Amino acid sequence: MKRRAVILFNQVDADAPKDDVDVLAQVDSVGQALKTLGYAVTTIGFTLELGSIRDQLEKSRPDLVFNLTESVAGDGQLIYLAPALLDHLRIPYSGCPKEAMFITSHKPIAKWMMQAAGIPTPEWIEASRHSTERFDPPRRYLVKSVWEHASNWFSDDSLLEVVDAATAVDRLRQRRSLSGREFFAERYIDGREFNLSLLAGETLAVPEIRFEGYAAGKLKVVDYRAKWEEDSFEFSHTRRHFDFPASDQPLLEELRRVARHCWDLFSLRGYARVDFRVDAQNRPWVLEVNANPCISPDSGFVAAAERSGFDYVHLVERIIADIPGAAEGGVAQ
After folding, report:
1. Nearest to 144 by CA among 222, 250, 37
2. For the range 20-28, what are the long-range contacts, defined as Cβ-Cβ under 8 Å and sequence gap of 24 or more?
3. How far apart are CA 83 and CA 96, in angstroms?
4. Cα–Cα distance, 60 to 41 (Å, whole number)
5. Is the pLDDT of residue 209 over 80?
């Protein structure tokens, strides 16, 4: 009898933004890989109707769940609900556990933990912070969403020239009042960008994201345009490179070391990505840890996996091999 696998993903509407609809490409690709590996595959769209999701899972009686849930009801802060429900039902599932999903998704909490562990992360200001700290000369900060990825939060007014923390706090509170969402401000590092993918705790080939032909003063940020708007300048001038001169090897090894430290600190599992900026003094800074990175065929994670010798089927197979209890599988009786 074939083993049974359920692909759990965030339910999206047909008219949803491209970054949300992309999960459907992941569902299709993972589904094909699972079938190649000999699984009978069904899919369940995850919503806030938790009772219904529980019933569907119990009816499916899967040996494992491949969790692709990136948000719930369009809200990134609910990403932990899918693994939490699976833990409640005692069903083995791919990827990071609920604790890692919650902590890394709340970027300031993750930054506090990294700072305490000695992992370099850029200075930041939170809306709850009460400080009279002043900056002379002014420092450039980016206003970022506490919960969402850059393609969701970035806009033309995201850059702040911060003279004092109190003014930055006021801006953050104003933005929260207008949007109903939480934001923080992070020091902008105008340098090189690297995204390190980890598979079962091992770092894959290291890519650098290069901002080619950007005018002086233009923010080097992988925003929504760079990811999804194919006709935009940002999309065509933001490129991934895997080849480096010998002089970069010590930096690459340091990036790998810090990424593995993040893996251990947050008890990550299966697969994850650590995003870095490297400043003019060649010092790496962790921007964020993504505990549920995109694995669609055209994603950076898959590009790094292929560069490391994993085709898509073997990538999925390796993720499954890192699932605790997957050998037993099934809904607990």
Report:
1. 222
2. 20/70, 20/71, 20/74, 22/294, 22/296, 23/68, 23/70, 25/296, 25/297, 25/298, 26/68, 26/294, 26/295, 26/296, 27/68
3. 8
4. 10
5. yes
Could you tell me if 274 and 262 are in contact, meaning their C-beta atoms sit under 8 angstroms apart? yes
Look at 256 and 167; give whichever has higher pLDDT. 256
Q: Which residues contact 28 (CB under 8 A, 6 or more apart)?
A: none
β-strand partners of 5: 41, 64
Average pLDDT over residues 310-324: 97
Q: H or E stretch including 44? A: strand 39-46
Q: What is the pLDDT of residues 241-286, one digit of tens each?
A: 999 999 999 999 999 999 999 999 999 999 999 999 999 999 999 9
pTM score: 0.92
Q: How far apart are CA 304 and CA 5, in angstroms?
A: 25
pLDDT of 37 > 90? The answer is: yes
pLDDT tens string 261-271: 999 999 999 99
Amino acid at 247: S
Three-state SS string over 237-248 comes to: HEEEECCCCHHH
Asked if pLDDT for residue 332 goes beyond 60, the answer is no
**Concatenated DSSP letters of 267-327:** T--SEEEEEEEE-TTS-EEEEEEESS---STTSHHHHHHHHTT--HHHHHHHHHHTSTTTT
Q: Give the DSSP H/E element, type plus range, for residue 139.
A: strand 134-145
The residues, ordered by sequence, that sit 6+ positions from 114 with a Cβ below 8 Å of its Cβ are 120, 121, 262, 265, 286
User: CA-CA distance, 14 to 214, in Å (whole number)?
Assistant: 34
For 255, the token pair is 């990036």
d(CA 60, CA 56): 6
Nearest 10 degrees: Cα torsion 43, 46, 52, 54: 80
Q: Which of 21-30, 146-155, 231-240, 306-315 has the highest mean pLDDT?
A: 306-315
How far is it, in rounded angstroms, from Cα 232 to Cα 252?
Answer: 30
